[in-house]
Amino acid sequence: SCSFNMEDFFAEEEEDWGSPLSHLMAGAMAGTVEHCGMFPLDTIKTHVQAFNVHGNIHGVKSITLRSATENIISKRGAIGLFRGLNAMVAGAAPAHAVYFATYEAFKGLFGGKKKGDTSYHPVAYFSAGVIATVFSEAVFTPMDTVKQKLQLGIKDYNGVIDCCRKTYKQRGIWRGFYAGYTTTLVMNVPYSGTYFASYEFLKRLLLPEGVDHSNFVNCVAGGGAGILSAALTNPLDVARTRLQTQSDVTGVIKYNNMHHALKVLWKEEGFSALTAGIVPRMLFHSTSAAICWATYEYVKKLLGG
Predict the structure, then answer these.
(1) In Å, how far from its chain's centre is CA 58?
(2) What is the number of alpha carbons within 13 Å of residue 223 lying toward its C-beta?
(3) Cα distance from N-terminal residue to C-terminal residue, the chain
(4) How many CA atoms lie within 13 A of 49 on its CB side?
(5) How far apart are CA 31 and CA 97, in angstroms?
(6) CA distance to 28, 180, 237, per residue, from 257 (Å)
(7) Could you give the CA distance from residue 7 to residue 20 in angstroms, rounded to a whole number?
(8) SS (H, E, C) the chain
(9) Is-contact 291 226, C-beta < 8 A?
(10) Opening angle at CA 237, ends 82 and 146, nearest 5
């Protein structure tokens, strides 16, 4: 018979691809470790990007890494660098679980995971990365929005629940929590595609013949993939930050969508606006990708995935 049995298909493929449960668990662990470790730098990046080149943050010009850091610490103490961390963890663990499990499944479906096949399949990796992003961002975007509002701390929110309630009251579900979703996808589709394809490429390049796992190589390959993808997509990241935080920063809805935000940024603030936060972003993504891949591959191996 020609009938296609999904269960049998996945049971057969599990030998080649590893267990989806181990991918989910390793992904959740990797997301949590990565985001907790990188959170202070992420807070600084959000501050640098949210306020325009001529603009202000509570009347203080905040555009350099140093002034943003000093500003946050003088207003709230060192703890200010960790404001919004619980929102981040609530989003990061499930989102990364979905991210890696989806990537592994589609990488297999697209033929990038056959046993004993050592050739490089950029299209399979890129496409699987793109699909993984669409699913994981649906989980992550609402919490990312809440996290950014808490990081900026312009409005007085009493933590995550209060911020969710006020955001919902002010702008509803889609505009309030998913304001950055399509923008994030526009940014993360090229980011993730490049990220996974370059990670797999660097991993193959650096792994010695006959070795299939090395924490050091996973770290270096992850870091390289992070730098490349982050630099390429920085202008989109600035536009996304402005879209997500504008209702708090200016109170005026100035940017309508991704394309409009990029146009206004270019016209009013020029090239420097599009590269705002690029150094912390590259630092952030190279370090976080190194932590993330090393943790993911290690836990996956531990769980027999």
Answers:
(1) 28
(2) 11
(3) 32
(4) 29
(5) 8
(6) 31, 9, 13
(7) 13
(8) CCCCCHHHHHHHHHHHHCCHHHHHHHHHHHHHHHHHHHHHHHHHHHHHHHCCCCCCECCECCCCHHHHHHHHHHHHCHHHHHCCHHHHHHHHHHHHHHHHHHHHHHHHHCCCCCCCCCCCCHHHHHHHHHHHHHHHHHHHHHHHHHHHHHHHCCCCCCHHHHHHHHHHHHHHHHHHHCCCHHHHHHHHHHHHHHHHHHHHHHHHHHCCCCCCCCHHHHHHHHHHHHHHHHHHHHHHHHHHHHHHHHHHHCCCCCCCCHHHHHHHHHHHHCHHHHCCCHHHHHHHHHHHHHHHHHHHHHHHHHCCC
(9) no
(10) 40
- Angstrom distance (rounded) from CA 220 to CA 35: 18
Question: Is there a contact between 133 and 103 (Cβ–Cβ < 8 Å)?
Answer: no
Residue 133, beta-bridge partner list? none
Determine the Cα–Cα distance for residues 16 and 3; give it in Å rounded to an integer.
Answer: 22
Q: Tell me phi and psi for residue 233, to 5 degrees.
A: -110, 10
Interatomic CA distance for residues 187 and 258, integer angstroms: 9
Query: What are 60's strand-pairing partners?
Result: 57
- State the Rg of the chain over Cα: 20
Q: pLDDT tens for the chain, 305 residues: list them.
A: 444 455 554 555 556 667 889 999 999 999 999 988 888 888 888 887 777 654 554 444 446 778 888 888 998 888 888 888 888 888 889 999 999 999 999 999 998 877 667 788 999 999 999 999 999 999 888 888 888 888 888 888 888 899 999 999 988 998 888 987 887 788 889 999 999 999 999 999 999 888 888 999 999 999 999 999 999 899 988 888 888 788 777 777 888 888 899 999 899 888 888 888 888 889 888 999 999 999 999 999 999 87
Q: Rounded distance, CA 22 to CA 259, Å?
A: 39
